[in-house]
């Protein structure tokens, strides 16, 4: 199974101070951050970066499929990622792309369960135009009902495309089994029937925009080579009049799982069998180490130095790959172990092998040297992942959106450095237990050659 955003395995040795004042860099995050909150609630973070005339412009809105609490109205956070490129009265559809294309900007976006993130990457010379255009669309998005209906059909086509591979159906089946109340029960794309009904929900889409695309629900990250005073003057000028307030909703809480659950997908075509073990685990938080523990736990249990990897992938060669779909979430979600098998008859052997590693960890049998090696490797990976302004901006925006604070990346990195073997063992004992487990399997259709089953 695969999430929309890959896992970010980042680590550092020292926490950075809060962002009330400009910061000095550190060995693991060697860039200065400057943060200002406008009167309307918009948080603006600037990161000077020696990129020689290049800038990254990242806008993160704290809205995802998590916010879709109304029956029949799922998938709208993702849908709005599409609609945000439709234009405004000042900059009609196509003009934004023409202007940014003139400068050579790379421009894209993605939606997850918890956030929607937009980024542009290109020359600093185009930054004044970019600030004007971005502020205009976030304040004054405009689209007609026919345009809305056309894009709704495009989103339906995107669902059909994704449904042609096993990952989406696996995620749907797992969510349906693991969640009974919380909005994580549906994927970012939404329930299929809701997607089909989208063309009739034009007015609701306008309401969705007014509810969530608000300055107090948005953070802006500008990373690269630019004049800070000039940038802030332009930001205040263009974003200052944005005056909407974010909506208040009650996301249903998921009750504790008290017994094992199973889900199964019969895949109608030949493919490799798949297995997912998933447990409910705590949300990511700026004030706890829960997400940091789970990030380290992935590498410890199924990383390339793990006994499970050596046994299942290298020695016995029962699986093509093992891994995890764990990604930080704003509310309690799932920690998972995944396996792509070579033969369906090995389901039980693979399942028991993975559970055995979890049991060893919960019993306190932890290889402290390997934990340290994982941390050292992650520290190197963190530095290597910050090679361009786009890398820095997206990672800052991701953790800010999830953790709700502009210094979210630094907090996550600091927590990752503090993970201890004893904490890993206690976490596994508390959360990775049989009554909290949801087991998903996928069985492919038998191929003509007979090699799948």
From TrEMBL:
<feature type="domain" description="Peptidase M16 C-terminal">
    <location>
        <begin position="206"/>
        <end position="376"/>
    </location>
</feature>
<keyword id="KW-0378">Hydrolase</keyword>
<dbReference type="GO" id="GO:0006508">
    <property type="term" value="P:proteolysis"/>
</dbReference>
<feature type="domain" description="Peptidase M16 N-terminal">
    <location>
        <begin position="55"/>
        <end position="189"/>
    </location>
</feature>
<dbReference type="InterPro" id="IPR011765">
    <property type="entry name" value="Pept_M16_N"/>
</dbReference>
<keyword id="KW-0645">Protease</keyword>
<feature type="signal peptide">
    <location>
        <begin position="1"/>
        <end position="20"/>
    </location>
</feature>
<dbReference type="Pfam" id="PF00675">
    <property type="entry name" value="Peptidase_M16"/>
</dbReference>
<dbReference type="InterPro" id="IPR011249">
    <property type="entry name" value="Metalloenz_LuxS/M16"/>
</dbReference>
<dbReference type="GO" id="GO:0046872">
    <property type="term" value="F:metal ion binding"/>
</dbReference>
<dbReference type="GO" id="GO:0008233">
    <property type="term" value="F:peptidase activity"/>
</dbReference>
<dbReference type="InterPro" id="IPR050361">
    <property type="entry name" value="MPP/UQCRC_Complex"/>
</dbReference>
<dbReference type="InterPro" id="IPR007863">
    <property type="entry name" value="Peptidase_M16_C"/>
</dbReference>
<keyword id="KW-0732">Signal</keyword>
<dbReference type="Pfam" id="PF05193">
    <property type="entry name" value="Peptidase_M16_C"/>
</dbReference>
<protein>
    <submittedName>
        <fullName>Peptidase M16</fullName>
    </submittedName>
</protein>
<comment type="similarity">
    <text>Belongs to the peptidase M16 family.</text>
</comment>
């Amino acid at each position: 199974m695969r999430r929309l955003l890959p896992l970010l395995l980042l680590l550092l040795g020292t926490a950075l101070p809060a962002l009330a004042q400009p910061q000095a860099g550190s060995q693991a995050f060697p860039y200065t951050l400057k943060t200002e909150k406008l009167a309307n609630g918009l948080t603006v973070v600037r990161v000077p970066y020696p990129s020689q005339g290049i800038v990254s412009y990242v806008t993160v809105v704290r809205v995802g499929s998590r916010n879709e609490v109304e029956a029949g109205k799922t998938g709208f956070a993702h849908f709005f990622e599409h609609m945000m490129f439709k234009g405004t009265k000042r900059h009609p559809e196509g003009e934004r792309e023409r202007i940014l294309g003139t400068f050579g900007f790379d421009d894209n976006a993605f939606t997850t369960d918890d956030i929607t993130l937009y980024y542009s990457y290109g020359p600093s010379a185009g930054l004044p135009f970019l600030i004007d255009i971005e502020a205009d669309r976030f304040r004054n998005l405009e689209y007609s009902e026919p345009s809305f209906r056309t894009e709704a059909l495009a989103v339906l086509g995107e669902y059909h495309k994704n449904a042609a591979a096993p990952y989406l159906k696996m995620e749907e089946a797992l969510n349906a089994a693991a969640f009974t109340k919380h909005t994580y029960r549906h994927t970012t794309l939404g329930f299929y029937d809701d997607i089909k009904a989208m063309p009739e929900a034009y007015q609701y889409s306008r309401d969705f925009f007014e509810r969530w695309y608000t300055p107090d629900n948005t953070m802006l990250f500008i990373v690269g080579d630019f004049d800070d005073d000039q940038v802030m003057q332009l930001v205040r000028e263009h974003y200052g009049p944005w005056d909407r307030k974010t909506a208040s909703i009650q996301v249903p809480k998921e009750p504790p799982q008290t017994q094992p659950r199973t889900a199964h997908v019969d895949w109608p075509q030949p493919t490799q069998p798949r297995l997912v073990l998933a447990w409910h685990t705590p949300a990511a938080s700026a004030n706890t180490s829960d997400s940091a523990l789970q990030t380290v736990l992935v590498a410890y249990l199924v990383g390339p130095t793990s006994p499970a990897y050596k046994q299942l992938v290298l020695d016995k060669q029962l699986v093509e790959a093992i891994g995890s779909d764990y990604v930080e979430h704003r509310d309690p979600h799932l920690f998972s172990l995944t396996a792509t098998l070579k033969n369906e008859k090995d389901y039980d052997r693979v399942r028991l092998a993975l559970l055995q590693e979890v049991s060893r960890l919960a019993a306190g049998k932890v290889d402290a040297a390997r934990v340290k090696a994982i941390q050292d490797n992650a520290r190197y990976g963190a530095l290597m992942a910050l090679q361009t302004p786009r890398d820095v901006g997206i990672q800052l925006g991701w953790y800010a959106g999830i953790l709700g604070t502009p210094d979210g990346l630094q907090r996550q990195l600091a927590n990752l450095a503090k993970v201890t073997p004893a904490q890993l063992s206690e976490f596994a004992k508390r959360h990775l237990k049989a009554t909290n487990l949801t087991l998903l399997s996928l069985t492919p259709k038998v191929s003509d050659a007979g090699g799948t089953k």
